[in-house]
Known about the structure:
Layout: H1 3-25, E1 42-45, E2 48-53, E3 55-57, E4 60-64, H2 65-70, E5 76-79, E6 84-88, E7 93-97, E8 102-105, E9 108-111, E10 117-120, E11 123-127, H3 128-135, E12 137-141, E13 147-151, E14 157-160, E15 171-173, E16 182-185, E17 191-194
Amino acid sequence: MNRKRKVWLWCFVGCLMLLGAIIWLYPFPSHEKVEFSSDKHSLFYEGKRSEVHGIMKDDRLYIPVEYIRQDLNKPVVYDQKSESMIMTTAQNVYQITVEEPFYKKNDRLIELSYQAGLETDGDRWIAAEFLQNIYALSVRTYPNGAVHIFPQGFEKKSAEIKSGTEEYGLAVRSEPTVTSSYYTSLQGLDKVTVLQASQMVLILT
Length: 205
């Protein structure tokens, strides 16, 4: 083999290696569509999705106590003797008797039209409606089942999808990468609410 042919051979091999590296490293958009589980009521706090979920009873949403403690950073203590959950704010102490339509605010008994607290299979839950009232939270459930919780004063920004955006850029993905599966696709001029600039989250509006 003469020198010229060797050079061409090495060039050819180099091009193949470069092409292989591009195919291997380039983040080609995924076209895998997955269903967002609407029956689990996935919880989002300030745009961050949790592995835990809410439940519905009598058309009312309930949030797990552990999520309230850990993700919302709100103090909830279970008193075994009275079978009640105790919650505190800077001004008041609330006591919720499990599966009863009333609660105590300091020493005053207040009746409700629903059960503020539930217990199922050893897990305890507090009605989202009740949480909103005492902790100045905004809780909103969307048609796809997602539940978004915002603290008072959380700034939500609206945005509009640019007309002419590439098809892969219109996908609402399960992770903040183009290689991840997607839930649904948007269209140009659709309006959305932006929760985090660095992470793709579920469509809100």
